Amino acid sequence: MRSLIPLLLGVSALPLAGQAPDPRPDSQPPAAGRLAVLPRPVFGRNTRSMLLGAAGVGAAISLFDSRLLTGAQRLGGDDLRTPSSIASIVGGPVPLTLGATLYAMGRGTGSSFTEGLGREVLRAVLVSGALTAVTKGVVGRARPFAAPGDPDVFNPGHGFTNASLASFPSGHTSAAFATATVLARELGVAHPEARWIVNPLLFGGATFVGFSRVYDRQHWPSDVVAGAALGAITGFEVVAHAHGDRSPIGRRLFSHLSLGPSRGGLAIGWSR
To answer: What's the CA angle centered on 32, arms 183 and 191, to 5 degrees?
Structure first.
């Protein structure tokens, strides 16, 4: 189905459409070298329409999961095998590596913006990854290669121990969209003139990561939609939290997660 990519792009735009700028200043001053004008976070406040929209799109796509998966493979043919493999790598170790690299570069050069950007990418990927892992384990949905043509095979609770039952949601897509959202928001504020180029590249790349997971029969299309929504929402919350805005959800999730330098490099901690 050629409608798969436009549908995924539409989902990637949902968080952007659901966010409205707030004229009120941030409750805390930003770090040096970073701009303060950022829209308020949406999760926990005005994201009802965004969440309902993502759930609606995901539910609608789930009715055609098998057909859309077959259509994605026909659309790609044999020409997308190599690009798809590269995209899977991009959605795998690259987000964490990118965040750690940015953080280290910022520390080394004294750039608070680069350091903060790396910290936010790491937080977004770690939190979205944890939420994804728990959901995978609880839902226990069979991957396409484990249940050919049948997207309705579920073994709740078995996704923790059986990788073939860890299809929902897509972790690669979640990490890609979490990273893209953080970078798009921060770079869009620091360099607004470049957002028309940066945002399509970031979200287009994240969308292709999701497409590759369907093309490689690792996930059903609705898994990718759920991963995209989870990653984008997490990215919004991380950036909002970094700029002093604490929504009810973000306050609980991110106030306890700490990242900082240590003798061995980077220390990750969680305080009660």
So the answer is: 40
Q: Is residue 75 part of a domain?
A: yes
Is there a domain that residue 178 lies in? yes
Query: Does residue 28 form part of some domain?
Result: no
Question: What's the CA gap between 3 and 5, in Å, rounded?
Answer: 6
CATH number, domain at 120?
A: 1.20.144
Domains identified in the chain, total number = 1
How is 107-119 classified by DSSP, letter by letter? HHHT-HHHHHHHH
Q: Give the residue from 34, 52, 54 showing the smallest Cα distance to 185.
A: 34
Cβ(42)–Cβ(238) under 8 Å? no
State pLDDT tens for residues 224-263.
999 999 999 889 888 888 887 655 555 555 555 555 555 5
Q: Which residue range is the domain that position 156 belongs to?
A: 4-20+39-265
- Listed in sequence order, the residues at least 6 apart from 43 whose beta carbon sits closer than 8 Å to its beta carbon are 233, 236, 237, 247, 249, 250
User: pTM, whole model, 2 decimals?
Assistant: 0.76
